[in-house]
């Protein structure tokens, strides 16, 4: 068999860490340099794993889990080392730990499982009851959290720029959603398909937070990682879906580079073609669609995005236009040619992605729009 082609996915993008790594203050640049080195090693190892054919038995892959209506969570302590998973410190149903990072990770895994099961009938991230494993206290001053294709891993942050990465449920939901994408459309982590991969994780990270807090779309903050930035950092979060490009503006971090529309699309070969930057465009489209529809984001807008991702029609190399058309088609099939469909088409049009063909039932607005953006914009 051939393994899934899931990429090594982190919540803090390389461009932001590279900015910190250039800072003169050793307390700022050393943790960033360390994090970049660790992440580079993981990317290399993940590339080898995802391109090497192997049998499940030879690779020691666990048997396929069976579907269940409750999560099977295990949290490990890496003890500030890089060996995974570490020592088991809390299993499913066990009492809370005296370590808040352990409890936050456990609760975040559960919140993600609950959203996918109760809103969409999905049994864990693979749809078949996959156990959810996480390691906390990874590395020393490690400024990131990641999904490695098999489990979640959380750093404690350096305390100067970033707090503990278990403290934001949307970060946990974001990373686990990379697993949902891995087990469904398996979007290639490059260019626009890679930006869609990142955006879908932001979308459901935000939806999971809203679901856990029982917020309506007008009550939500639409921020990703709102609890990550340490005091003194000029910013609200890592990303803003409501207003991409405004999440932070800090002498150490630089300015949030995300565009909200195709007019600002960033053409770059860095970060796999700007996957963490250009994801602001589909992020904003979801925000516009969800707020136009109203109510709870997971009920209609989230359902449309989920069905587009998991319905079997989204190809691994889909660009923004392909995904936009599919969301419009799903909206029409699920809710008819009414307010929900119009909200989806209008949202994509406002960010500059024009939906053509039978899926487009409302007049297209003028402005910068692309019928078929190339894989790199």
Automatic annotation (TrEMBL):
Keywords: Hydrolase, Metal-binding, Metalloprotease, Protease, Secreted, Zinc. Residues 185-353 form the Peptidase M4 C-terminal domain. Residues 73-182 form the Peptidase M4 domain. The active site is at 175, 276 (proton donor). It is found in: Secreted. One of its GO terms (cellular component) is extracellular region. Its main location: secreted. One of its GO terms (molecular function) is metal ion binding. SUPFAM superfamilies: Metalloproteases ('zincins'), catalytic domain (SSF55486). Its EC number is 3.4.24.-. CDD domains: M4_TLP. Its cofactor is Zn(2+). GO terms for biological process: proteolysis. InterPro entries: Metalloprotease_M4, Peptidase_M4, Peptidase_M4/M1_CTD_sf, Peptidase_M4_C_domain, Peptidase_M4_domain. It holds the Pfam family Peptidase_M4_C. Belongs to the peptidase M4 family. Extracellular zinc metalloprotease. This is Neutral metalloproteinase. It comes from Streptantibioticus cattleyicolor (strain ATCC 35852 / DSM 46488 / JCM 4925 / NBRC 14057 / NRRL 8057) (Streptomyces cattleya).
């Amino acid at each position: 068999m051939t393994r899934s082609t899931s990429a090594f996915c982190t919540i803090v993008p390389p461009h932001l860490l590279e900015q910190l790594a250039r800072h003169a203050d050793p307390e700022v640049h050393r943790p960033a340099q360390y994090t970049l080195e660790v992440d580079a090693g993981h990317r290399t190892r993940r590339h080898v794993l995802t391109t090497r054919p192997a049998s499940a038995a030879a690779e020691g892959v666990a048997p396929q889990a069976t579907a269940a209506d409750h999560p099977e969570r295990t949290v490990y302590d890496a003890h500030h080392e890089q060996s995974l998973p570490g020592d088991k410190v809390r299993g499913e149903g066990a009492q809370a730990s005296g370590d808040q990072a352990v409890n936050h990770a456990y609760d975040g895994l559960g919140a993600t499982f609950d959203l996918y099961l109760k809103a969409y009938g999905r049994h864990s991230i693979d749809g078949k009851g996959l156990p959810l494993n996480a390691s906390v206290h990874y590395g020393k001053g490690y400024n990131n959290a990641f999904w490695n294709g098999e489990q979640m891993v959380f750093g404690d942050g350096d305390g100067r720029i970033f707090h503990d990465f278990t403290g934001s449920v949307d970060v946990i939901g974001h990373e686990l959603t990379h697993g949902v994408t891995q087990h469904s459309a398996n979007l290639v982590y490059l260019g626009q398909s890679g930006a869609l991969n990142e955006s879908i994780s932001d979308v459901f990270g935000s939806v999971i937070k809203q679901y856990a807090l029982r917020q309506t779309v007008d009550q939500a903050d639409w921020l990703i990682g709102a609890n990550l930035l340490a005091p003194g950092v000029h910013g609200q979060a890592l990303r803003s879906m409501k207003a991409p490009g405004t999440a932070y503006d800090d002498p150490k971090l630089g300015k949030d580079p995300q565009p909200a529309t195709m007019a600002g699309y960033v053409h770059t070969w860095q970060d796999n073609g700007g996957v963490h930057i250009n994801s602001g465009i589909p992020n904003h489209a979801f925000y516009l669609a969800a707020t136009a529809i109203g109510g709870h984001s997971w009920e209609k807008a989230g359902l449309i995005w989920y069905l587009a991702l998991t319905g079997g029609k989204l190809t691994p190399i889909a660009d923004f236009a392909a995904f936009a058309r599919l969301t419009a088609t799903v909206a029409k099939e699920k809710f008819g040619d009414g307010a929900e469909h119009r909200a989806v088409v209008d949202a994509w049009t406002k960010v500059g992605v024009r939906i053509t063909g039978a899926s487009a039932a409302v007049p297209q607005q003028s402005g910068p729009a692309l019928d078929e953006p190339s894989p790199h914009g």
